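User: If you would, consider this record:
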Amino acid sequence: MFTSDEFDRIQKEFKVRQISRKQKLIKIWGFFLSIIIIAIVSLIVIFPKQFSNGDTVWILPTYGGILLLGTLTGFLISLKYVSEKPFFEYLYDVIIDKINQHEGLFLKYTPYDKTSRDFNKTGGLFTPYANVNVKRHIEGMTSDQHEFHIYDTMLTTSTNNGQQTHFDGIYFVLNKSTHTIVQVRTNGKPRVKGHKYVKVDTQSELNVFKEVDHNISSLDYKYLNFIEKLSQNLDIKRVYFSSVEHQLHLALWYKNHPGRKLKNISYETLNKLTEYFLSEFKLMEDLLEIDE
């Protein structure tokens, strides 16, 4: 989709942004490292007798050493660190613009969207208390004028033992009239407020949940077949689907995330990413067709 001339221009700007981001991190860590070194030297000069006192001899080497080691490690990592921000703030925006021009679409791209966080509570796929971190948000309309949203997101909660990740992948929301309440998922259970679910036997490897006192319908089986096909994709680790009132929610947790952990771009990578973003849009169209 991109020409070689377009790639050269994009790559040049991308490298400028990468270098700028890297230099910023080096300056930040360099500043903290300098402060720690100056503080340690100052304490040695101001309190020279601390090392001859058994009660204080360990304080500066211990705490100063920890701070020095931490900031030095951060500084050394910043020298080799490749930031993801140029991808999300520049490259993916360029790709969406190209898709809009080539496909006649009107997709809106927002990096690091801090306003769109209610989708997790509405879909009921994961705990409503999760912290929602959105790296990219794409919104648009299907060919039948149904609004959809695509989030590259991570859902986490903090515990005494650290951080628990409930989901890390692509989360789709399709606004449409729905004719069933159902969830299909690799693991876990529904978290839809105001609804009680029960697990039903479908002889599928995936877990299917229906509202209490509601039988599984032919439409539910259509959704199940659709999700089963997605789960057979070797690149996908877990799948989650929820049909609630007026919305369909689909979450795909990848083994190797298509748009993450990239270090650089090539002509082939740029076009593969473009194809991938197009496949996300097509997935919304395919999901819509199930109940049309």
Observations:
- Residues 85-289 form one domain.
